[in-house]
Each structure stands twice: as C-alpha cells, then as structure tokens.
Specification:
The complex is a heterodimer of chains A (81) and B (191).
Chain A (H helix, E strand, L loop, with lengths): L13 H9 L20 H12 L27
Chain B lengths: L7 H5 L21 E3 L2 E3 L2 E3 L14 H11 L2 H9 L10 H5 L1 H7 L1 H11 L2 E3 L6 H17 L4 H19 L1 H11 L8 E2 L1
Parallel strand pairs in B: 3-4
Antiparallel strand pairs in B: 1-2, 2-5
Classes of the chains: A mainly alpha (81), B mainly alpha (191).
C-alpha cells in the first residue's frame, strides 16, 4: 500500500514539486541556466510535473485550498501576498 | 508518508498530543530521490523564512541589532527553540547537537534533518521571487485539476518566468542565480 499526504494545495503544494524537479539530474537539476533562461520547460520538467499529477492517485483527501497543517501555520512568509 | 515542516514530530509525536493515533508512531527518513548512474539524487528545498531586521528609522538601531544578535546566538537560540511551546526551528549544527532541542524535536528526527540539510537546494532567492513561485503554483494547480496538461503547465510557467526576469532585470536575476549556485549541494547517495 502506498499513500502520501504531502501538500498539493495552492500556496503550498509547489514546494514539493521543486523537490521532485531539482532531483532529476546529477548532481542537480537547476531551475535556471547560467544565462537566466528557465530550464523547467524540458524533459525533466515534464517528468516532474507528470509524476506530481500521477501521484495524486496515491494521495489522501486534501484539506481546503490555502490551508496548511497547523504545524506550518507561521513557518513560511506570505508567498501569495 | 508526508513531507512536512521540521517541527511536525515536536508537536505531534508528543505525550501532550492526547487522543492522536500518530503519537509514538512517527519516523523520519531522507526523502525519495532519482536513481542515476548508480547513485540516488535526493534534493530537499530550503524555504527562506522570516528574518529579523532593524528599521532604518529606528531610534535605537544599535540596541535592536544587539537584541537580534543575542536572540540568534547559539545558546539562547537553542534554549528558545527547545522550549516545547516555542516556534523557532533548529537549523544549525549547534541546534542539531543541542541536548534540549534533541529532546523536544526528537533525536531520531534531528539526525535526519541534519542529513537533509546537506541535500537541500536554495529556493528562488532573488528579486521577484514571489512572482516566480506564484506563476509555478498557478500552473501546477491547473495541471492537477486537468485544466492544463503537464507540458502546457511547464511551457506557460517558463513563459511567465521569462517575463518576470525581463521585468525585474535580467542582469540582476542572472547575478543572483549564479551566486546562489554555490549553495547547491553535491551529495549523492549509493543506490
């Protein structure tokens, strides 16, 4: 049985996507090239995103959008100011 | 399995967390990764958090600075952090070794957090960071709901990031990106 509860809602879920994407090259999958061009529209960006979508089938029911767990309530600056 | 903030075991694996079915059953482990060339690349992400600053309009800036310096010193920060009701989280080698912090945050967890820090990349830390995050966030949500394919989400996010870069100033963004590269880890794990 495989289940996860990592956050997928707006305002929180994308932090888990960053972890997927940056681990898809060795030693790192950078977000930008040295010239500042985004590297996310790529084979690895597509794989990270498709995996992020597909793993929803193993996810527990989510809380309402915008909510984080109580242990995280003040741990992140307002990302959506 | 979940990926949560580092204080989850402190507050949930806690005798005071009465009535919970998870108390006493929590474990910590390194995050999953990608296997490449016989090695596993595991990467967590550092989220830049709230920071104490001294106002340029302060009547007593030196005193304010000294207070922040005292609060951030190894012994005092560890004492505040170890407090069961405290909110600051361990982040330094001193924290991970501090006996009181290891008690409230749990020794099993502190060792994993220390190992995770060595595998952590900095999140976007440049002017316009919030705009970069929001563009990705909105496109990922659209992909999760099926409003966009994964390919469309990445293409649209990359377009938005390019616009944010131009708006903010390419030279400024490129300088920050390349300076931050020194903070990206090189640790790989055996497969």
């Amino acid at each position: 049985m495989r289940h996860s509860t990592d956050l997928r809602n707006q305002g929180w879920g994308y932090s888990n996507w960053y972890q997927r994407f940056t681990s898809m090259a060795s030693p790192n999958q950078f977000l930008f090239g040295d010239d500042g061009v985004p590297l996310i529209n790529s084979k690895n960006g597509l794989a990270a995103t498709q995996g992020y979508i597909d793993s929803l089938s193993h996810h527990s029911p989510m809380r309402s959008a915008g909510a984080g767990p109580s242990t995280m309530a003040t741990s992140r600056p307002a990302a959506r100011r | 399995m979940t990926c949560a903030c580092s204080n989850l075991p402190k507050f949930l694996d806690n005798a005071g967390n009465t009535g919970s079915t998870v108390t006493g059953k929590i474990g910590s482990m390194l995050l999953p990764g990608t296997e490449m060339d016989g090695k596993i690349v595991r990467r967590s992400v550092l989220w830049f958090s709230l920071t104490g600053m001294v106002s340029s309009q302060s009547e007593y800036p030196e005193v304010a600075y000294l207070l922040l310096q005292w609060l951030g010193s190894a012994r005092i920060y560890a004492w505040i952090t170890a407090n069961p009701g405290g909110y600051f989280d361990p982040f330094s080698l001193n924290d991970f070794a501090d006996p009181l912090e290891r008690e409230t945050y749990h020794a099993y967890h502190m060792d994993v957090v220390r190992a995770t820090v060595a595998r952590t990349v900095p999140s976007i830390n440049c002017p316009g960071a919030t705009a970069f995050h929001n563009a990705l966030d909105e496109n990922l949500m659209a992909s999760l709901t099926g409003a966009k394919t994964a390919a469309q989400a990445m293409a649209n996010t990359a377009d938005a990031w390019a616009k944010i870069t131009r708006r903010t100033g390419e030279e400024k963004i490129i300088a920050t990106i390349n300076a931050n590269k020194a903070a990206w880890p090189t640790v790989l794990d055996p497969a």
